[in-house]
Design a protein that fits this description.
163 residues; mainly beta; OB fold (Dihydrolipoamide Acetyltransferase, E2P); five-stranded mixed sheet
Length: 163
């Protein structure tokens, strides 16, 4: 069944996230570096009065982060995990730095010609791949961006940064 998705470009790939997981799309913004976090975390930024992590999608995919440009966007995604101290009701946002947002459209990741994606211990956030009018698009599952120990580290860093 087709699902409304936000489609973007990063590290030479077309990626998408279900629109229900996207809280907001922001223009490029400044972030504050956070120590002792994975290299794909650009830092922290303020979103609706709270510090949240900013993930560099290109670095997360194993590529070099391209130079910052005005066409960059931050997708604020809803992650169902973590600690209610961080964000109410167990849903907390994470910013995802992408090269550009292309479109919003319906994609059927369950179609007969879709591919389930390739399994990888470091790529659990990557889902199936579907052929679309934009080309091959791979689904990103924001709730799989962080391992439980990474969530704990980020919560600690956010608490330290807030004090």
């Amino acid at each position: 069944m087709p699902v409304l998705s936000v489609i973007w470009r990063s590290a030479g790939s077309l990626l998408a996230m279900h629109a229900r997981d996207v809280v907001e799309v922001l223009p490029p913004l400044a972030s504050r570096p956070a120590p002792a976090v994975p290299d794909w975390v650009r830092g922290l930024f303020v979103f609706r009065g709270r510090l949240i992590p900013l993930v560099d999608c290109a670095t997360l995919l194993g590529a070099s982060s391209p130079p910052d440009r005005m066409m960059n966007r931050v997708l604020v995604a809803r992650v169902v995990a973590g600690d209610e101290r961080l964000w109410p009701v167990g849903n907390w946002p994470v910013g995802i730095w992408v090269e550009s947002v292309l479109d919003i459209g319906s994609i059927d990741f369950d179609a007969a010609d879709a591919h389930p994606g390739l399994a990888s211990p470091t790529g659990k956030f990557l889902g199936p791949v579907a052929q679309t009018r934009w080309g091959l698009v791979q689904l990103v599952r924001p709730s799989h961006l962080f391992a439980p120990d990474q969530i704990d580290t980020l919560i600690q860093r956010l608490e330290q940064a807030a004090t």
